[in-house]
Amino acid sequence: MRKYFLTFVFLFLACHVSGADVPPDNSCLTCHSDMWDDMKTSVHSQHAIYCNQCHGGDPSQKDKDLAKTPATGYVGVPDKKQIAQICGGCHADVEKMNFYGIPTDQLQRYKTSRHGKELFNAGNNKVAVCNDCHTEHDVVPIADPNSPVYPSNVPKTCNRCHGNEKIMTPFGIPTDIFNKYKGSVHGKALFEKHDTGVATCISCHGSHGAVPPGVKEVAAACGKCHINEKKNFLESPHAKIEDAAKFNQCISCHSNHDIQPPGLDMYVQACGRCHAPQTPEFLEGRKIWQVIKDAQDDLKATQGIVKQAGIEGIFVEEDTLVLEEIKTKVFEMGPTQHTLSFAKVNDLYAQAEGKFKQVRKNIETKRDNLKQRKLFLLPMWLFIFVMAVALIKKHKQLDALREEGKKKE
Amino acid sequence: MLKNMVSRWFEERFDVQAVKEPLEYQLRKPLPRNIGWFHTFGSMSLFLFVSQVLTGILLLIYYRPTEGEAFESVKFIMTQPYAGWLFRQVHAWGANLMILMVTIHMMRTYVTGSYKKPRELTWLIGVGLFMMTLVFGFTGYLLPWNQLAYWATTVGTEIAGAVPGIGEFAKTLMRGGVNVGGETLSRFFVLHVIVLPWALFFLIGFHIFLVRFQEMSTLDAVGEEKKTKPEDGIPFFPDHLLKEGVVFFVLMGVLITLSILAPFELGEKANPLSTPVGIKPEWYFMPMYHALKYFPKVFGVLLLGMAPLFLFIWPFVDRGRNRHPLKRPVSMTLGIITFVVVIFLGTLGCLSESKQNFFGKVYEFDIYGVPHQVTEQKL
After folding, report:
1. Cα angle at B10 between B8 and B12, to 5 degrees?
2. Tally of domains in chain B
3. Residue A387 to residue B245, Cβ atoms within 8 A
4. Cβ within 8 Å, pair B243-A395
5. Which residues in chain B have Cβ-Cβ distances shorter than 8 Å to A398?
């Protein structure tokens, strides 16, 4: 991904911002000058890829008919299949693409996708092909925020078709996916926090090879980002269930498009869907729930104690560092709970608990020290008072003696 | 028995009597009758200097004068070594109290006219000691390498840079570069722990020698002072020393109490890229800092640079014979006006660029310390 990103950044920077020069002797523009307005800023025109590369014809001919003779390979407006083949003509050519460092398996992947299979195998023209996502004349690199396939634009681009009831009804695909995604934890991160690293449609379904993940691939799809969750899940008894009707991996508890931030409530809602209350499995889940809740409560309380101590002027740097270690342990409980092993989750809590106690004891000791310092002032001032009184008394005594001596003289 | 043995051992080898007699004379030398509680401030300044040296030595065990370690080492002192926090707080408060004591001591000398003939040199050295104490405070303030210290030093050295002619050179010399950095820290450290302590040590020695040699000043007019006879005066030891003892205990108590109840915060580590809002110098530079706001930079620096010069030449300007404050109306009026102006400017400096609540009304003090009432915005 990083390689592609850098390639596109390079290509983007290599482009003139003002757009490409008007191609010399391009008779297409005599009639289609409006197309040039779209095309001049595209990545293709920046690299001297003009009309005839996709549409065929001979742009050097001044005469319209001569420019479109069959001998010139004139295509005109290509149909969907042709589009895939024409784009693939260059983009599947390793030699041509080598210089740009762009992958060349898009066409092959497309053919394995649901879109490609419908188009090439079933001859269904109502599926997405290259230009439906990338546009035609004004194609820009995917690293360009104006690109329809820039990460933050992907859901909207997919929704152009997948939100259209007329297109989706024949395929039996729901059209509320975009709205569900928008309200999900991923959608909020993408649209509200502008986090382009978050999962979008293509992260789970793939882009050129887009397919709905099957039951065995769900954990693999989610696990691309949620590595630890996947690793732990594969150790759990749930991972062995192959019947999607009974258990569909991550989706069974988290759902798919409208995934919400996971909370402890899920133990009540999700477990109860399959496991009756008081069954050993349900109770095991409750035990895990309890230990995670205790850890989170303890973390919150200890954070409060450290914060308050800092406000009181106590040095809490070391305790803050220990608190960070505890936080790591408590956060680790999140992925670990996917093993459904109480022992493993509890082991993390035991490690955190020892540090909780250490931090609290440290703060208590420091606070006691501060109190003791203040208490020390009392005997100190008592001592000073006694000393001052004694010295003044002695001074007066000496004064009196001197006066007496003077009188005697 | 042991005492006799030791005495004999020394007497057999040295002319002990030649040393003992002048020492005993100094100890028993009678002080004039007017010497009282107000004459203890000089000794208190000395006590605080000794306290600063001792706590400074303890701090030096752990302090590291480098850009990367200074802040961390002070934090270490405040958290790890036994009573490290106490030494740092006593040192920090001691610096402030020392400046206060030296100032009060100077004010007492001014009021009692003790700077007059024949003690002009003692006064000159005293003014020098006062200036050096301020430099002590300025250099020491940077050493914890926190945000306040860093930016206060930046502002302070910038002011020095405004002196015409040598300003830029002086600024670069102090900073050891264009900006305040590790070089500045090294220079300030060397000044603070080597140059100034020794310079102050010898100057204090000379100051005390002059005080003892020329005897304490009385309120008698110049030329009418009489040598204090033993039967009329108060012996320095033990009588006067007992008074010093009382003040010493109280001062020590105040120092420790302040260290415990009002500790100096270490704050955040110096960050040259982030200037905190409302940077102000320590209270002893506040009147000067605030006064500078009213004048163009160069003129202000030159004008305020005259203040120490004025202190130095004062004994040669005020050549009247009287010492009693009530018999010196001009000097006293001038002194009182200066005192009021300094306090007023210092207060304005503290209040400037802050928001304060007086009798339920909120006032915003602008950069010149002028209050503006804040009215609540109502929708």
Report:
1. 65
2. 1
3. yes
4. yes
5. 238-239, 242
Among chain A residues, CA nearest to B231: A406
From first to last of the 409 residues of chain A, give the pLDDT tens digit: 455 555 555 554 444 444 566 666 788 888 888 888 888 888 898 888 888 888 988 888 888 888 888 888 888 889 999 999 999 999 999 988 888 888 899 999 999 999 999 999 988 888 999 999 999 898 988 889 999 999 999 999 999 999 999 999 988 899 999 999 999 999 999 999 999 999 999 988 888 988 877 656 777 888 889 999 889 988 888 888 877 677 778 888 888 898 888 877 788 778 888 888 888 888 888 899 999 999 999 999 999 999 988 887 788 888 999 999 999 999 999 899 999 899 999 999 999 999 999 999 999 998 998 899 999 999 999 999 999 999 999 999 998 988 888 788 7
**What are B354's strand-pairing partners?**
B365
Residue B234 lies in a domain: yes
Do the domain assignments include residue B301?
no
- State which amino acid sits at residue B189: F
φ/ψ of residue B362, rounded to 5 = -95, 130
Chain segment B91-110, per-residue pLDDT in tens:
999 999 999 999 999 999 99
* Sheet with B361-365, side-by-side order of all strands: B354-358, B361-365, B371-373
Q: Do the chains contact at B78 and A380, CB–CB below 8 Å?
A: no
Neighbours of B371 (CB within 10 A): 17
Q: Is residue B63 part of a domain?
A: yes
d(C-alpha B77, C-alpha B94), whole Å: 17
8-state DSSP, B240: I
Which residues constitute the domain of residue B68? 32-275
CATH number at residue B143: 1.20.810.10
Q: CA A55, CA A67: separation in Å to the nearest integer?
A: 11
Count of A-B CB contacts under 8 Å:
49
What's the full length of chain A, in residues?
409
| Helical packing angle, B120-142 and B182-190, nearest 10° | 150
Residues of chain A contacting B238 with CB distance shorter than 8 Å: 394, 398
Interface test with B, best of A314, A315, A378, A399 (most B CBs within 10 A): A315
What is the secondary structure of A63-89 as a DSSP string? SHHHHT-GGGT---S--HHHHHHHHHH
Residues on chain A touching B256 (C-beta within 8 angstroms): 377, 380
CA distance A8 to chain B (A): 34
| Angstrom distance (rounded) from CA B97 to CA B99 | 5
Q: Please answer yes or no on whether B249 and A381 come within 8 Å at the CB atom.
A: no
A402 token code pair: 């001197």
Minimal CA separation from A409 to chain B, in Å: 10
Minimum Cα–Cα distance from B232: chain A residue: A406
Q: Which DSSP category does A279 fall into?
A: S
Check residue A175 and report its DSSP letter. S
Residue B82: HSE in the Cβ half-sphere, 13 Å Cα cutoff: 0
Contact B260 A381 (CB under 8 A): no
Contact residues, chain A, for B231 at CB < 8 Å: 406, 409
Place of tokens 């100057």: B203
Interface of B with A in 213-232 (CB under 8 A): 231
Residues of A with Cβ-Cβ distance to B242 under 8 angstroms:
391-392, 394-395, 398
ipTM: 0.86
Q: How far is Cα B234 from Cα B230, in angstroms, rounded to an integer?
A: 7
In a domain, B84, yes or no: yes
How far is Cα B226 from Cα B236, in angstroms, rounded to an integer? 18
